[in-house]
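[job 4471] stage=fold_predict status=RUNNING
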Amino acid sequence: MESSLKKKTAIWVITPNGKILADKISQAMDDTRLFCSERIRFAGHEYTQFQSLADAVRYQFHSCRAHIFIASTGIAVRMIAPLIQSKLEDPAVVVVDDRGQNAVSLLSGHIGGANDLTCRIAHILGANTVITTATDVNQIPAVDVVAKEKNLFIENPQAIKSVNMALLTGEKFYVHDPRGYLGIALPNAEFLNHDEILEYVQRDSQENSIETLPVVYVDDIRRDLPGDVLVLRPPSLVCGIGCNRNTTMEEMKALLEDVLAKSDLAAASLTCIASIDVKADEGGLIALADHIGLPIIFFNRQELNRVKEIKNPSKLVQKHVGVKSVCEAAAILAAKNGTLIVPKHSTKNATVALARIGFSS
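[job 4471] inference complete, writing C-alpha cells
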C-alpha cells in the first residue's frame, strides 16, 4: 500500500533565495515536504535539514512521488543520476533556478508527471516553462501520456519509443484494443482484431519481413508477443475470493497465480479483490491484498444472494455462510455486474473466480 510519504513532493533547498521560492511553492501546493541545507540559518521548523544533499536525496528519492530542486540542472543531474531506474518507477524531477526564472522538466515528464508539475510551478512563480519531450513541443499526443490518462498499465516501457516516433513522423501503426480504451486518442492508428494482430507480429518476426510498423496491444489477455510490441494492460479484471478461516496468504496467492496463468490473463489488469464481509478480518486475505497492492471490497449476504449469474453454487457454503456463492458472486458485484469469465477454482481452503468489468467510454 502507498505510504503517506510516497504521496509527497520533496522540495530541495540549498540557498537562502531558494528557501523563499520553496516557501512560495509549498504555500500553493498540498503534500509538499521541505528539505533545507543546515548551512542556511533560520530554516524554520517546517523544514527537514540535511548535511549532505547527495545522501539525503539518495535516501528519499524513491520514497516521494516528485522532487523539486531549487538549484542548477547540473547539481540535480549529479544527485539523481545514480538513482534512476525506469520510466515506470522513477519519480518526477523538476529543476527551478535560484531566481525562479525557469522551471525545467528533467525526469519522468510523462508517466511521472514532471511536465504537468513543471507547468504548475511555472504558474506559481511566474517562471518560464521548459519542457523538452518531443511529443509535447510538437503538440502531439504521446502514447505513455494517453496510457496514464486512461489508467492503462505499461508492461514494457522500452517499447514506448517506437510508437511515439510513429506519432511524431505521422507513420501508420497497428493497435489491438477490442474494448476501446484508447478511443480515438492516437492518430494514424489502424485497429486490428486479435487474430490480425497475432498474424502481423508473427509475420513481422520472420527474417524476410519487409514491413515493420509499431504495434500497441491493449488487452488483459496474455499472449506471447515480441518485445517491441507495446503492451498496455487495462484495469478490467476483478478477483473474487472465498476462504476458510485462517487460510494462509500463500495458499490464496498460489491459487490466484495459477488461475491467472491457466486463463492467460494478466495480473496487471486486476483492480481489486472482493469477498464476503465476514472475512473483513481474515489475516491471510488482508495480507494478500497488501502483498499485491490491491484494495479489498466486501459484500454482505443479501448483496451476494442477489447475484443470479453464478455458475457453481455451493450447498456447503449456503449451509455455513448463508450464501450460494462467495467468490463468483463477489467478483461479479465488484465488476459492477460485469461478466464472469473464470468460474470458481478451488484448493482445500480457498476459492477464486475472475470477472471482467464492463467497459463504458
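[job 4471] summary: The chain has 13 helices and 17 strands.
[job 4471] exit 0
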